[in-house]
């Protein structure tokens, strides 16, 4: 297989192609680090209170999260939080090229577990949004936005799994990259919201008491659709082999790298860290 084959187009040829490959890798590394901070928060907040036998303290963040006597609903929430940890850590492992090449068996098993986690998180999430009263999400617009995210997770997981089974590896890689981004949707929502709050020096476009408003409705769709659109642009630029298109994609990604770093810093400092201390 040469570096011109479609499966390896992402490695890039020529200065523009190689730059795009490097900027993409840098963004991915930053995203994985940012998701690791999210995992540390989930472990340090939800995990710590669960281990101390005080899951009711989860309600400091999710006002109606833990409900005494609601075994089924509480289990769905606990499972949701547990699988948050496995899916975010598992995603990093799956994308690590060395592991894919050196330990393909581990890649396959971790991949199966990743898909199972995706299934549990999206179905459990849908159940909570549409059946639990007073869950910590805004109005109908946001419910539809996060439900679209769940639907995309399910569809991409299916398409990625099927492509791997049929040994269509370039296609498998594309669907899995899309799955990784939509699984990260809730993380994009949080870093996007915190960046917005910092840039605007306060809540703009939504009511912080009801957690409703046009900006949050927009964000609940953008958390899924915007990363997918950017990925599609990058994939087209890689496949086109046209330097102008590749430079444009690199410049867009470089800007998004800065925005992502800003969002991670803002979410860590304003949302996650204060809940750990
Ligand atoms: C697949 C990736 C997902 C991850 C990693 C994830 C992670 C989390 C985390 C960490 C929380 C706790 C809130 C916080 O402390 O920030 C949470 C809450 C919640 N998630 Fe998810 N989630 C995912 C997908 C979904 C989906 C697709 C839905 C809905 C369709 C959903 C619905 C909810 C709801 C409703 C809550 C709040 C529960 C309550 O208020 O009782 N999640 N999620």
From TrEMBL:
Transmembrane segments: 25-46, 72-93, 113-131, 143-163, 175-198, 218-237, 249-273
UniProtKB keywords: Membrane, Transmembrane, Transmembrane helix
Keyword Oxidoreductase recorded: no
Coiled coil: none
Record-linked InterPro entries: DUF2306_membrane
Full protein name: Putative membrane protein
Species of provenance: Roseateles oligotrophus
């Amino acid at each position: 297989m040469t570096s011109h084959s479609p499966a390896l187009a992402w490695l890039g040829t020529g200065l523009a192609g190689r730059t795009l490959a490097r900027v993409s890798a840098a963004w991915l590394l930053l995203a994985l680090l940012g998701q690791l901070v999210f995992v540390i928060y989930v472990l340090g907040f939800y995990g710590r209170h669960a281990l101390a036998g005080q899951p009711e303290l989860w309600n400091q963040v999710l006002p109606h999260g833990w409900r005494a006597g609601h075994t089924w609903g509480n289990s769905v929430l606990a499972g949701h939080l547990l699988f948050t940890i496995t899916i975010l850590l598992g995603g990093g492992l799956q994308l690590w090229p060395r592991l894919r090449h050196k330990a393909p068996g581990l890649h396959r098993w971790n991949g199966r577990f990743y898909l199972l986690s995706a299934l549990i998180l999206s179905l459990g999430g849908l159940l909570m949004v549409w059946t639990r009263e007073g869950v910590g999400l805004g109005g109908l617009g946001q419910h539809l936005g996060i439900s679209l995210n769940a639907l995309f997770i399910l569809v991409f997981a299916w398409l990625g799994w099927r492509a791997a089974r049929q040994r269509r590896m370039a296609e498998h890689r594309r669907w899995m990259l899309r799955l990784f981004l939509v699984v990260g949707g809730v993380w994009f929502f949080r870093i996007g919201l915190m960046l917005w709050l910092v840039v605007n020096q306060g809540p703009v476009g939504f009511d912080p008491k009801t957690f409703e408003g046009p900006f949050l409705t927009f964000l609940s769709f953008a958390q899924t659709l915007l990363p997918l659109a950017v990925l599609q642009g990058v994939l087209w630029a890689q496949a086109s082999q046209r330097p102008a298109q590749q430079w444009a994609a690199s410049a867009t990604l470089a800007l998004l790298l800065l925005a992502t770093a800003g969002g991670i810093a803002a979410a860590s400092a304003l949302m996650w860290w204060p809940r750990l201390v």
